[in-house]
Each structure stands twice: as C-alpha cells, then as structure tokens.
C-alpha cells in the first residue's frame, strides 16, 4: 500500500477531565470475572509456588521504557554477593502458548506467503515481537499469542499467565512498583481504515474498529487485571513511565499521558500519522514520539502535551519512522528510518538513514546513510542504542550494524551479519555489557568487540529474534523469540571471554 506525502499544519493538545475518560477493568474476555468457565484457557493462571524466594529477587527494581531505559541498553550487573545462579548464568527455554519448534527453520505461513514475508508475519501475529523485561528475579514477556507471562528467572517456571484482552501484545512489559503495564494492538487495517485514510489522512489510523486496543494494568504478583485504558487506534508501542504517569502513542496519531495508578487521562495530543512499533521515550521534561505515514519525530512537554518541535528525515517512506523507537542521551535524540525507495536493475531497493537532533531544540546535528539494499518486508528499520558517546544501530536493508559517534555521526565501524536470512537482519538494539556488545538477530546471538566491530563468538538459539535486544542480568541473557519462546542463555556461552566474577 502506497501513501502520498501529507503536510501537518498543526498539533492539538487537549486537557481531559478524569471523569470524562474514566476506565473500568471490564473487558470482553475478563478472566477475573469469568464465572461461566473458571477453567477457561484464557483465565488467569497463577502458580505462586514458582515465584522466586526473597534472596533470589535480583536484578533491576523497575522497568520504565521499552528496551530497558531511554538509552535502550538493557545490561544490568549484579552485586558480588548475589546468588551464584545469576552470576554464573542459567539456561532454559520456556514454551509459550503457541510455541513453534526452535529447530524448525520454516515459519508457520511459509507455504502460503513465502519465507520472506512469513518471517515478519510470525513476529507480528504469533510470538514475541520485542524482548523481555526482568525485574527482581522475574522475567516478564508479552506475546502475540494474546498472553502475558511472568516466569521465574532462575528456573524458567511459570508464575502467572494472563490474557486481559483478545488482541496481540507486541510490547515490552513495564514493571513499576506492584503493577505490570501491557500495550495491546495489532498491525491490522480494515477496509474502512483504508477508505478513511484516503479521505482524511490526519484523522485515520491503524487498528480502529478492529479489536480492543489500549493499556492494561495487571497485578505484578498474580497477573490479575486491575484497570485498562482503551484507545481507538492500536496501542502497539510500549509506553514510557515517568512522574507516576504512562506516556502512550497510538495508531490513530494520538499521544496520551495517563495516571499510572488508575489509568485516568491527564492530556491528549493529536499529531497525526501512525505510531506502529515506535515506543515513546522520556528525558527530563520532554517526551519523544515518532510517527509514520505522516512521518515525524515529536518532542512534547510532559506537563501539558504541547508540541515543542518536530523533526523530519527527508525521504522517510511508508511506516519507516513509526517502526523505530527514538533513543536519547546527553541531550541528543537519535532516530532512523528506511527511505528513498528506488528500482535498481529491476529490483526495489531502499536506504537506511540515521539522524541526530538536539533534544531541546530539534536542530539537526548530523545525518548518516547506512547504504542501499533490497526492499525489506513491512518497511522495518533497526532500533538504535547509545552507550558512552557511541550510537550502535542495525539496518535490515543492508543487514549490517554500525557504530557512530553520538556527537558527530562519524562511523567507527560496520559489521555484516553473517547469516541475515531472506527477510534481512538487524532490527533489535544491541546491548553493551562488561566491555562487549551483544546482538540478537535471526536465530543467533553475537558477541562483538564494541571498539572494532570484530565478531568474537556466535551462539545459535533457533527460531527468530524480531525487534529483540538481549536483556542481560548478571551472567544470564534473557530474550523473547518470534517462535513464541522465552530464552535464557548464559552470557559465557555467547562470549567465552566473559568472567562472571568480574561482572
């Protein structure tokens, strides 16, 4: 589907009264009040005997952003007196509701769609689109199988499973205090959405009148639904948490701030476009959100939702800017997109452009072109990560990762993924941990020297990793898999040089 270029004339910020937008905890498939069949497969399953003991509740105390934090670097060392299991690392594979064999290289829909298209479709409708969150000895995951999971980080045993709504869960669970926050929304359009877009593109959007979209708040202990905030457009992106609030972007071009305690709205700003998988990020008094179709990176005031500036990447195409989450550090926001489609030797190609903006003013600091390559399914880009003044980002167009200076954009090195597969590789953000860079893409995990880009080692897991960054806690790496698994791998298996005693 092709979209014509649209110019945004204005953005409207609306303050909303809490009573006008009151939310309930009743949803069409509410497992808490399912009196007809308490043994329904969608009823909340709670196995308290599998929860970690007090001394095993290690790791981050909260998870506030997609990919762990505003820098997208999900590496978390533990104390030297932490339990031996987390320092040495554990290995397990937890099968989710629709687990597809990890050693099967063929996605479910390959015979119908062809392998190039079937790979991303399986990520979008079958397994884990993003990675996992780890808080105090528990691994939390959202899956497109419509369930959210809490799994013991040491044993891989299920603590609870919850399906609060009949929709795909494509985000990275936020965990703050006693609550877990999920985002619900699929990549679907219906015919009415398409027709509305052709007539009123700023009012149209993804997910409207298709399923039940929004944010769902669960009890962290047992997975029971506490409240929900419904949205008309899909809520595929992971929210960002700050100042006792959740910041949300949706498929119908809206950005919200809601109370994290009860889900009541504080403000709503309409900018137009589609959020796709681009998750908001909060830095100081700003929230940064990227939209596609009507492409743009927006900086909003967190107090009132006013748009402070809009940044653009010339040539951004289709859903490109809305499929990549912006990253921020040291007063600089970095964003990338697929761009500039062109036929070369009779085949469709495109480029990946990376651009840095001043976080306060929106001034363009630098732009880097990662090169041209074959058109990839669904116009997907790679998620950037920042560590110690360097930006690390992948491009599925060229199946490469690059390291760039945060302040100048100068490229330090380019690394080519050895086995990118027919759909390309390089969507997930890398993780910097103990002087090594870890990348999960395709069916494999790689250890890369962060200064030179030299590959140290690779480890085969199987299945496929979508927009997945490795979450590392102590000596264990945790991942979500498009084949509908949660994987735990010792870091030393991916990097033989890793020393658990020094971490």
Automatic annotation (TrEMBL):
GO terms for molecular function: hydrolase activity. It comes from the Bacteria. Residues 213-331, 353-481 form the Pyrrolo-quinoline quinone repeat domain. It holds the Pfam family PQQ_2. This is Tetrathionate hydrolase. Keywords: Hydrolase, Signal. InterPro entries: PQQ_b-propeller_rpt (IPR018391), PQQ_rpt_dom (IPR002372), Quinoprotein_ADH-like_sf (IPR011047), WD40/YVTN_repeat-like_dom_sf (IPR015943). It comes from Acidithiobacillus thiooxidans (Thiobacillus thiooxidans). Coiled coil: none annotated. Residues 1-22 form the signal peptide.
